């Protein structure tokens, strides 16, 4: 298990504070980062992956992200893909320095879980948006990462594939991979080991979902009324979707 330790992380561009004095420690499992558009989620993921220069420190198992890159798989929300590349080429590009020779088997195995083995030999341009997301997930896992960083991994996915992805991430977390995900799917936070809530570049809450989340906090962060789905589950939805049936 890779522990992710963030201390006093700040990042600014031209005097604008994008991340502000963020500190937390995620010791193991699945961490979900939530927050409104522009809250700083992607920037935080990039800092964890060692892709931006920031103030403060990030330590992955005690070392800086730059020194840990070999063990990290990072999938951005909107990667620029070569449209003529085949699925297998996308995975190969992620494995330019493969840790072992098994990347192809792992790649095909993940695609197979989604019934998408055929993507390996098809050009990206022929794939739907959801298929491209799943291709990237399979490519990221083919590296056998110790730390998996995913920006919006469930975007474009139908409810079946969204659920399968979450199950896969839980499975990986159970197998000792640390998984960090930025997402707008607040209802899925119930399955996270830790949730980080960002608002305007600040960490306003961190911890297991039962402790870190509340109706008050989420309503304040998102600026609309957000309600807990039921008393036993730390899963949340806009009140608009619940109140119609609550009378
Ligand atoms: N180089 C830059 N110059 C100016 N502003 C920037 C720069 N990089 C990021 N920002 C701003 O920082 C804020 C945080 O961006 P970021 O992409 O991290 O947000 P996010 O939480 O991932 O948003 P979304 O949910 O919309 O993807 C945004 O307001 C963005 O416009």
From TrEMBL:
Residues 4-225 form the ABC transporter domain. GO terms for molecular function: ATP binding; ATP hydrolysis activity. Pfam families: ABC_tran. Keywords: ATP-binding, Nucleotide-binding, Transport. The keyword Transport applies. SUPFAM superfamilies: P-loop containing nucleoside triphosphate hydrolases. SMART domains: AAA (SM00382). Gene3D superfamilies: P-loop containing nucleotide triphosphate hydrolases. This is Putative ABC transporter, ATP binding protein. It comes from Acidilobus saccharovorans (strain DSM 16705 / JCM 18335 / VKM B-2471 / 345-15).
């Amino acid at each position: 298990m890779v522990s992710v330790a963030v201390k006093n992380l700040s990042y600014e561009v031209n005097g604008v504070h994008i991340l502000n004095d963020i500190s937390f420690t995620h010791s193991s499992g699945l961490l979900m980062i939530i927050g409104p558009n522009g809250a700083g989620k992607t920037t935080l993921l990039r800092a964890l992956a060692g892709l931006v220069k920031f103030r403060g420190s990030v330590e992955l198992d005690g070392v800086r992200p730059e020194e840990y890159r070999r063990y990290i798989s990072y999938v951005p929300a909107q990667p620029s893909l070569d449209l003529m590349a085949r699925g297998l080429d996308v995975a190969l590009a992620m494995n330019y320095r493969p840790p072992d020779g098994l990347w192809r088997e792992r790649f095909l195995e993940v695609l197979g879980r989604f019934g998408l083995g055929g993507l390996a030999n098809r050009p990206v341009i022929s794939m739907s948006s959801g298929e491209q997301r799943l291709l990237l997930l399979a490519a990221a896992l083919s590296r056998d990462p110790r730390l998996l960083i995913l920006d919006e991994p469930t975007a474009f996915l139908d409810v079946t594939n969204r659920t399968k992805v979450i199950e896969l991430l839980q499975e990986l977390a159970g197998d000792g991979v640390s998984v960090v995900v930025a997402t707008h799917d607040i209802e899925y936070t119930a399955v996270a080991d830790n949730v980080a809530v960002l608002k305007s570049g600040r960490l306003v809450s961190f911890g297991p979902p039962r402790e870190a989340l509340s109706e008050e906090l989420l309503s304040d962060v998102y600026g609309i009324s957000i309600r807990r789905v039921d008393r036993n589950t730390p899963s949340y939805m806009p009140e608009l979707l619940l109140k119609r049936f609550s009378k």
